Amino acid sequence: MKKHVSILSAMTVLLTSQGLHAQNAPTEINTITVQDDQVQEPLEAFGFPEVPAQNLPLSYSQISDKSLRENRIHRLSDITLIEASVTDSYNASGYWDYLSIRGFTLDNRANFLREGLPINAQTSIPLENKERLEVLKGLNGLQTGASSPGGMVNYVVKRPTARRQLLLETEVGSYGNWLIAADAAGPMKGSEQFGYRLNVAHENLSPAVEDSKGERSVLALANSWRISENQLLESDIEWSKKSQPTQAAFSLLGNDLPSVSDPRLNLNNQSWSLPVVFTGLTGSLKYTHRFNQNLTWHTAAGAQELHTDDRLAYPFGCSAENNYDRYCSDGTFDMYDFRSENERRSTQAVKTSLQIKAETGSVSHDINIGYLGYVSRERYDKQAYNPVGVGNVQGTAKLPADPALTDENTNRDSEVNELFAFDSAKFGPWGAWLGLRFSDVHRSSVRTDASRATDYRENFVLPWLALSYQFPTWMTYVSYGEGVETYVTPNRSGYTNPGQFVPDVISKQVEVGVRGGEAVTWSLAAFQIERPQVEDQRPDYKIDGLSRHQGLEAELGGEAGRLQWTASAMWLKARRLDSNLNPAVNDQRPTNLPEHTLRAHVNYLIPGVQGLSVNSRVSYEGERAVTADNSMMLSAWTRWDTGASYEFGAKEGKTVVRLAVENLTDESYWKESPTQYGHIYLYPGEVRSVFLTLQTNL
Known about the structure:
This protein starts with a helix and ends with a strand. By secondary structure, the chain is mainly beta. The chain contains three helices and 39 strands. The longest helix is centred in the N-terminal third of the chain and has 17 residues, at 2-18. A hairpin with a 4-residue loop joins β25 and β26 (521-537).
């Protein structure tokens, strides 16, 4: 696979050099990004790069750079404040982000793309150099192959602009947090066919959570070369580093759900506690050749190298009461010294495709066919996971360190080769949509002491189809799709089929949607996803029933006079069904999923004061189940944020000052209750914080 990447990259360079002598085609490809937050860009990573996003028969969101800035979204998990279909799923300060979409937690190894190419999201991914986030809601087997069925996130990199720009931004927070960032772009002076985009940022991390101070930096450069009217070569590279202690979570105290005593308390407060350090180097090379109006060739290659030092004073379970999924009744817990240093993760990917416009009689087709191949490697050293004593939820215990490397880790390899085909057929107001993805997956793993080796190779054909109808101002559609996940029985004694692949983990989704509006835009989607449930109850490791998620999503946005608003909501009925191994969970709600979510934002332009506006944002989530039998629930919660902004200066040199007050009422609540590694955790909501941002264009 590495050979494939290098060969195709070399081919790209060769073809672009030859393209200097090619004749110009009648259709010019876009070479420069002109930012317009009202325009919905085509969603190339979704499989139909020639179709406007608003015409696609699926549920999605595009979160622009402007929206990221205005909502203070500095990490991916912050989008849970503005997207009702997206909720938290084990999001700790200082760690990587976990998201749940439509009630399914995304797989950080499989559900994330950058520039349409697979990446590993087990790291901290900067947003300063991202033009937008593309979020697919629902089954994504057609877009990502073997992956979790909840959805997909694609990071789109900022590209050079038509005019020179220099955007400076600074931010300070009430707990000592500060950020400084610069965004410079434009064509190269004297060589207009070359463009650049440079992003630099540094943030001093000082959240309200105690003992969590850290820092992060990012340096990113994107370039474009307009070889001719019909050829474009683009490249980008980004380096980032984040160092911050992660937040150890709270838990149940025996059979009791504790109140939120102090959301600023961090249980990872030992004198020997060290930060988690994420370092990443990621880049891509893209070549586009539009031969004519009906034929375009696109090739991209990408590489990602990650290095992580993962450390935590780790509370886990209560051996005194023989409970390993919660803390002790008296507020104590077992404490471990966990260290997994020098983790290395790498991904190399290549994708090549043809976009073809064709007509067969009265039917027009937008066809996208191609190949995607990628390899990923994960390499680890031995790790420390050593008991060091008994801690307590007051955070007062002082315990000795034990960094001895006594525990083995697991190295993983994956090679995936895929062929895909998409066809959007239009006949009058009707649209017929078809997608097929053939995936050949070869994966293996082995412990760092060479034990428990597994190796398997499987292939899958994943279909997706839809039918749409376009009315004058709105459209409706119905779709069906399938996805797959790969599981392997642990290669240990005591299992019936150790080291064997678990077949037929095929998810299925049916979705019906409507979308429309001009001055006021709106959308509504109803869905049902059924996912086989794989359970680990030795000696069995097999499919045991399924999870069925049924839901309704709604979005609304518009303006009336000086008032602008957006809102989204989701109702989700998720149930565990047909379990033979654990009948008590049948017809129960999965843990850590709210049945109702609402996000809304309003902005009001103050009359008589040019450039001054006030805004308010609300985020509501219903009850979450804490335990699998639903005997314990987290209360519903509502968080209010408010702010104001003032814009002044000429359009080319505009300056914006923003004031934001988050959790205005200083509400104390448990935000989420994830079950991770067999343990129930509790994370509190953030305390009231104030931020002041200054952004200026030079």
